[in-house]
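Summary for the steering committee. One of the milestones for this cycle was to obtain a three-dimensional model of the protein with nicotinamide-adenine-dinucleotide bound, which we needed before selecting residues for the alanine scan. The sequence and ligand used are listed below.
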Amino acid sequence: MVLDPPLPRPMIGRLVVIGLGLIGSSILRAADARRLAEVSVAYDAEPAVRARVAELGIADEVASSPAEAVKDADIIVLCVPVGAMGAVAQAIAPHVKPGAIVSDVGSVKGAVLNALRTHLPSGVHVVPAHPVAGTEYSGPDAGFATLFKNRWCIVTPPEGADAEAVQAVTALWTALGANVETMTAEHHDLVLAITSHVPHLIAYNIVGTAADLEKVTSSEVIKYSAGGFRDFTRIAASDPTMWRDVFLNNREAVIEVLGRFTEDLIALQRAIRWEQGETLFDLFTRTRAIRRSIIEIGQETAAPDFGRERG
Ligand SMILES: NC(=O)c1ccc[n+]([C@@H]2O[C@H](COP(=O)([O-])OP(=O)(O)OC[C@H]3O[C@@H](n4cnc5c(N)ncnc54)[C@H](O)[C@@H]3O)[C@@H](O)[C@H]2O)c1
Ligand SMILES: O=C(O)C(=O)C[C@]1(C(=O)O)C=C[C@@H](O)C=C1
């Protein structure tokens, strides 16, 4: 997979990335490869992370404070855990120039939009976004320039958002390689609860259950985890801070989806108890078709339906 060639002229003056882990460092790498900004500026709360980013040479400048980072910025992208977005917005608020755009990459949108709007002055354009692309790894060394290539990025502008600012964020993500879709923050949070948040919770739970089973030793779990369980362990290795914040900030949608999930699981339990093979067979046939259609259209380029038929 390769990125498109560099732009003939940078599309952004000063691009600032705050939080230099998997996502922030991937944005910097892709922006550097495609020469999207005249100047890219990086900041992270951890001095060791800032030093590593300077060593990697993926930003033009590494700032030593949030205030220094956002001075004269045109677009600022917050790539910190969802629970830290409010504190970062508060720290940069007095230093962001009027007319600048503040965006983010948080996995939850409603709570982040509220946090950003609470702290940032009204002259600053808030346009949240979420690249639906990632891995179970964290930190600046985990990032790579093609992470967003042919993946979806969901932009969730608040009502009345400045059209030019929304266009600028859309153009940024398109240039980073993503396909952009726009929806409300509320709808995003429901869609991602089913496609990402609850699946992660299930993975954390099943790996935790396996680890706690008294009659199966942990060495047996490791030894025989070549198949399905191994896939769950990859997801369950995802960053604890990030995922704690996701669940605490998308409580309503996660609880709603978990309710449905629990009902369906109990129905399966009943089908097994009463030996209702047809029920099991029908469900497994339906789910197999879903998997095959995802592969057929190519997960990376498929236009997901985002559940719109449910209204
Ligand atoms: N990992 C994924 O698969 C994925 C995918 C899409 C979106 N996201 C979202 O992207 C964001 C970042 O995730 P990541 O995987 O890059 O995390 P990460 O742990 O790799 O990096 C986060 C970085 O933020 C820094 N940070 C934390 N608090 C800070 C603060 N107050 N000020 C400045 N820096 C601070 C940390 O030091 C760390 O370097 C999260 O909001 C997450 O929900 C993650
Ligand atoms: O591929 C993975 O490891 C991911 O978990 C990526 C994933 C997802 O659930 O699809 C995780 C969280 C994000 O907000 C977006 C993408």
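Key point for the committee: The chain has a mean pLDDT of 93.
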